[in-house]
Amino acid sequence: MTRAALHSATRRQRVAILGSTGSIGANTLDVIARHPERFEVFGLTSHRRVAELVEQCVRFSPRIAVLPDRAAARQARQALAERGCPTEVLEGPQALCQLAAAPEVDAVMAAIVGAAGLPACMAAAAAGKRLLLANKEALVVGGALFMRAVAAGGATLLPIDSEHSAIFQCLPEDRSTWGERIDHIVLTASGGPFRGRAPESLHGVTPDEAVAHPNWVMGRKISVDSATMMNKALEVIEARWLFDLAPEQVHVVIHPQSIVHSMVVCRDASVLAQLGTPDMRVPIAFGLSFPERIESGAARLDFTALQGLHFEPVDLRLFPGLALAWQALAAPPGTTAVLNAANEVAVQAFLDGTIRFTGIHSVNARTVERLAPALPAEATLEDLLELDRRARDEAAANVRALSPA
Ligand code: NAD
Ligand code: MG
Fold first, then answer.
1. Which one of 42, 61, 153, 285 is least enclosed by Cβ atoms within 10 Å?
2. What is residue 312's DSSP assignment?
3. Is residue 13 part of a domain?
4. CATH number, position 67
5. Is residue 140 a part of any domain in this protein?
6. Is there an atom of ligand 1 within 6 Å of 46 CB?
7. pTM of the predicted protein model
8. Is 47 in the pocket of ligand 1 (CB under 6 A)?
9. What domain range includes position 154?
10. Could you identify the atom of ligand 1 that is nearest to the CA of residue 21?
C-alpha cells in the first residue's frame, strides 16, 4: 500500500488554524490544500478580517469559524448563509480556547500574533494536541507555565518559527538526549531591511520602510520586529524554553541570505544545520507531517546558483533591542512577559505614527526597567495576563512620554 493510500485508509488529521487570515495561516492552508487525503480543516479563526475568513470557509468548509468580536461574527454568519456555507460561527474570546481544545481536533496551528494567542495555546497544550507553534509571543509570555502545560497535557509541541524548526530538525526525536548533546545553538538572523546602516540614520525611517523585509513576506508586527531585531530577541527567549537551554547557550549570527535557518553546535564541536529556500511552508509542512515529510510547495535550493553564504556578528549599536533578551532572561520571572507587552505596544505606536522607529527600543528598555514583576512562585495564566495588562499600561505611559504633545 502506498503511503497516500495508507493515509486515506486511516482517518484524516483534523486541523484548527488560529489566525488563519494571517501570513502563517494562509501558508498553512496552502500546504493543507496540497494534501486533501491527509488533512481536513476543522476550524478557522480571524480577528477582524471577515471577508477573508468567509472566503476561506467557502473554500475549505470547516466545521467551526471563530471571530472573537461579536459584530464581526454576526456579519460572517450572514455572509456564510448567503453563500450556502454550513460553517458554524462562534464568537467571544473563550471560543478560541473552545476550538483549540475541541475533542474532534487533532492538530492546532497557533498563528495568532501577540500575547492574545496565549490562552488558546494553553488550552491546546492542556488538551494534549499536536501544537504547531508560530505564535512565539505566547511562549515568551507563558514560559515555564506554558512548557508545564505541554508536559502535563501530553501535547506534541512543534516549532514553526523557521529557526526553531531548523534546530528541532537537527535534533533526535528523544528529547531526553538533547541536554547531553547540545553545546549551544546559533540562531541565524537576516538583519532585516536596515542591516549595515548607520544607527543615527534609523531615526526617521517610516513604517513602510520598516516592514519591507528583504527575504520574507510576513505580517506587519513581525516585520517591524525583524527591522529592530526584537524578533530575534523574542526568538532567543523562545529557544530557551523550547530546547530547555541556559540563556548563554543561545547565540545569534547575522546571515543575510536566510538559507541556513539555524544550527546546533554539539558537545564534540560538530555543527548540524538545516538549509532551504526561505519559505514558511517548509516548517509548516514539517510540523503537519512530523515525523514524516510531505510536499510543501517550496522551491528546491539550487546550490549552483547561490552567490555564497555570508555570516557576520550583530552590531548592537544598530540593534540594541537584541541584548534585552538575555537581560530579561536573567531578571525575575515575568520580565520576558513585560518585554513582550512593551514591544507590542511600542510597535503599534510606531505603525500608528505616534513614535519614531528608534522610540521602540526606548519604550521597551524603559518599561522593563520601571516595571519589576513580582510573580508568585507558581504563577497562573491569570497572573501572567494581569502582568501583561500592567506592562501595557506602563508601556503606553512611556509612549506618551516620547510622543510629541
Ligand atoms: P499576521 O498579522 O499576518 O496574522 C495574524 C493573525 O492573527 C490574523 O489571522 C489575525 O486575524 C489574528 N489576530 C490578530 N490579533 C488577534 C487577536 N487579538 N485575537 C485573535 N486573533 C488575532 O501575522 P503572521 O505574520 O502570520 O504571524 C503570526 C505569528 O507567527 C506571529 O506570532 C509571528 O511572530 C509568527 N511567525 C510568523 C512568521 C511569518 O513568516 N509570517 C514566521 C515566524 C513566526
Ligand atoms: Mg523566525
1. 61
2. B
3. yes
4. 3.40.50.720
5. yes
6. yes
7. 0.97
8. yes
9. 3-160
10. 9
